[in-house]
Amino acid sequence: MKNVKDDLADRELIFSRVLDAPIDLVWEVWTDPEHIQLWWGPDGFTNTIQKMEIKKGGEWSLIMKSPDGDIYAHRCMFREIVERKRIVYEQLTHPKYLATINFESKDDKTFLHWHMLFESRAYLIEAARTFKVDIGLKQTAERLIQYLSQLK
Amino acid sequence: MLAYIFASKYLHIMETRRDVFQAIADPTRREIISLVAKQSLNLNSVAGKFDMTRQAVSLHVKILAECGLINIKQEGRERYCEAKLDGLSEVSAWVEQYKEHWERRLDSLEKYLSKLKKERNEKRKR
Q: Which of A125, A142, A152 is the best residue to mutate to test the B interface, defined by the most B CB atoms within 10 Å of its own CB?
C-alpha cells in the first residue's frame, strides 16, 4: 500500500487573470504598501500594512479589519522576489500556505498567474471552513437580529 | 428564550462543523473513502490495504460511519462498507466559497488598476 499522501491537486488553488494594465503598474500596486492596502480587501475590510520588505526573507505583516471591527493579523515572509516577474510568499499565520504569483507582460496587458499551495488537503479545508464559519456565524447573527426585530 | 435561540443555533453549527470535517481531516480516512467509493468492500479487504492494525482501520471506519460518509451493511457473516458521498458535497461547497473569496480579491485588484490608470491619465492631460 502506498504511503497515503495528498496529491498536489487536492491542496492547491490556482487563479489566473489578464489584467488591462502594463506590467510596471501591476508590479507597483502589488509591492507598494500604499497601493496594496487599498485593494487587498476583502470587500469592506480596511488593511494596515505594518511591514512590507520586498526582498527574499523579508517580512510582510498586515492587519485586516472587517466592517464589524473584527481584527485579523497576518504575518508572511517573502521567499522569492524577482522584479516584475515573480513573488513567492509564505503565510506564517493560520491558515498557512505558500503563494506564488507570476507576472508576464503581454503587449500593454499583464498576465497574472496566482498559485496557492496548502500544506495538506486538511489545511485547505480548514482555511475554507474557518472562512465559512466566520461568514456563517455572521449570517446567523444577522438572521437572529432580524428574527428578534420581527418579534417586537 | 434568547439564550435558548443562541445556544441552539450555535450548537447546531458546532455539530455540523465537527461531522464531515472530522471525517476527512485524516488522510487514512480519506483513503478509505476513496477505496469504498469505487466499490463496496468488506472490512477485512479494507484493513488489508493499510499498513496498520485491523483495529485501527475499524476505528477509522467507525468514525466515517458516525459522520455519515459510510454505510456498514451486514451480509451474512461479512460487514460491507459502502460510500455515502452526499456529505462530501458540503466540503466542496466550502472550498468553492473560499476560492470565490480569492477571485473577489483579483477583481478588486483589477478595479483598482483601472481606477489608477484613469487617475494618472487625467493628471497627464492637465
A: A125
Residue A137 reports pLDDT greater than 60: no
Give CA torsion, residues B62, B65, B69, B74, to 10 deg. Answer: 110
Q: Is A129 on the interface with B (CB under 8 A)?
A: yes
Q: What is the CATH number of domain B1-83?
A: 1.10.10.10
- What CA–CA distance (Å, rounded) separates A38 from B105? 11
Under DSSP, is residue A26 helix (H, G, I), strand (E, B) or coil? helix
Can you tell me the ipTM of this complex? Answer: 0.79
Do residues A114 and B106 touch, judged by C-beta distance below 8 A?
yes
B97 CB neighbours in chain A (<8 A) are 128, 131-132, 135
Q: Which of A105, A80, A142 is nearest to A24 (CA)?
A: A105
pTM: predicted TM-score of the whole model, two decimal places: 0.70
* Chain B residues within an 8 Å CB radius of A42: 101, 104-105, 108
Q: Could you tell me the three cell numbers for B60?
A: 477509522
Interface membership of B62 toward A (CB under 8 Å)? no
Question: Is A76 in contact with A89 (CB distance < 8 Å)?
Answer: yes
